[in-house]
From TrEMBL:
GO terms for molecular function: ornithine decarboxylase activity; pyridoxal phosphate binding. It comes from the Bacteria. Residues 2-68 form the Orn/Lys/Arg decarboxylases family 1 pyridoxal-P attachment site domain. The keyword Ribosomal protein does not apply. It is an enzyme of class 4 (lyase). It holds the Pfam family OKR_DC_1. Keywords: Lyase. InterPro entries: Orn/lys/arg_de-COase, Orn/Lys/Arg_deCO2ase_major_dom, PyrdxlP-dep_Trfase, PyrdxlP-dep_Trfase_major. This is Ornithine decarboxylase. GO terms for cellular component: cytosol. The gene is speC_2. The lineage of its organism: Bacteria, Pseudomonadati, Pseudomonadota, Gammaproteobacteria, Enterobacterales. Its EC number is 4.1.1.17.
Amino acid sequence: MWLNGTSAANKVVTNALLTRGDLVLFDRNNHKSNHHGALIQAGATPVYLEASRNPFGFIGGIDAHCFK
């Protein structure tokens, strides 16, 4: 059970799974706790993916061309 909030939980998980130099696929729309936990604390290297936007400007999923 986790009682410290999702930001702290994100940092715990990223620190448990990542080590310095690991590549991490990142949507630029990630929560800042993911950036802090994975990039700053764990020392992982980001590979930023392009998120799509719908006609109203809302950010959607990652387009398939990003994975080719």
